[in-house]
Amino acid sequence: MSVWEYILLFVSVILGGTVAFFTQNYNKSVLQLILSFVGAYILGISVLHLMPGVFSTHDHYIGMWILIGFFVQIVLEQLSGGVEHGHIHPSHHASSSFAIQVMIGLCVHAFLEGMPLENYGDFHTHVHGDNHGHNHLIYGIVLHKAPAAFVLVLLLQLSKFRRSIVIACLLFFALMSPLGAFLGHTLEVNGLLGADTMRKLIALVIGSFLHISTTILFEIENPGHHSISLRKLAVIAFGLLLALLTVEV
User: pLDDT grade, residue 134 (50/70/90)?
Assistant: First the structure.
């Protein structure tokens, strides 16, 4: 990873959270549309870019690691309360223990996602034979971390935390993916992170991405009605199309 990619990981979270500081009454429908695009895009890159790489060696157990990643994300969501999906639960706003759970869930998730980033370029080159277009993973992480930071700051503010504490939480969250990437790089340099382990880490991220994207996309517009508005359908199609257009031919 280059310096600008570390900066992008950090700044995207800061920007997402900063917007929330200046947002008194946010438009929930707009946030849902943004999340729908993000969900469609990370689903697209998971299927079109990440899965072909991890399955390229015909490892019969790699699918198990995807399922583990899916399950781990379910567990982490019990801590985060679905904040990464744009959920805010008013009943928990005054609970400091819930805020701690949210921070733990989001930070562990961000750290684990960051670990394969430092070496993903080499992995992409090994699988595809070139070093072009290997930023799909980092783009997917950036796109869903920014809305998560936005919702996290809103939640902390609604929970009446002091602004200094909210800023500290945002900075800590922003550091998690870069720190994960740095640890991945350190382990690789010291010979502790080989290609096989790298593939498993990416499989874990794929499982996490699949859970996040499907949770977003399967959310219905109105309770009791299994329908999707034309606007939401359009942004989903755009997200999938964008992922498709970046496939190497």
Answer: low
Geometric angle at alpha carbon 186, from 152 and 1, rounded to 5°: 65
In three state form, how does the secondary structure of the chain look? CCHHHHHHHHHHHHHHHHHHHCCCCCCHHHHHHHHHHHHHHHHHHHHHHHHHHHCCCCCCCHHHHHHHHHHHHHHHHHHHCCHHHCCCCHHHCCCHHHHHHHHHHHHHHHHHHHCCHHHHHHHHHHHHCCCCCCCHHHHHHHHHHHHHHHHHHHHHHHCCCCHHHHHHHHHHHHHHHHHHHHHHHHHHHCCCCCHHHHHHHHHHHHHHHHHHHHHHHCCCCECCECCCCHHHHHHHHHHHHHHHHCCCC
- Please answer whether residues 232 and 221 qualify as being in contact, where contact means their C-beta atoms are separated by less than 8 angstroms: yes
Backbone angles phi, psi at 134, to 5 degrees: -95, 15
> Cα separation of 73 and 109, whole Å?
7
| Closest residue by Cα to residue 110 from 131, 135, 80, 89 | 80
54 — phi, psi (to 5°)?
A: -75, -25
- Answer whether 72's CB lies under 8 Å from 208's CB: yes
Output the pLDDT for position 89.
53
Which pair of tokens denotes residue 83?
Answer: 């904040």
Query: Would you state the structure tokens that stand for residue 116, as one six-digit string?
Result: 């394969």
Rounded Cα distance between 202 and 245, Å, is: 22
Place of tokens 């706003």: 93
Distance of CA 240 to the CA centre of its chain: 16
Is 80 exceeded by the pLDDT of residue 48?
Answer: yes
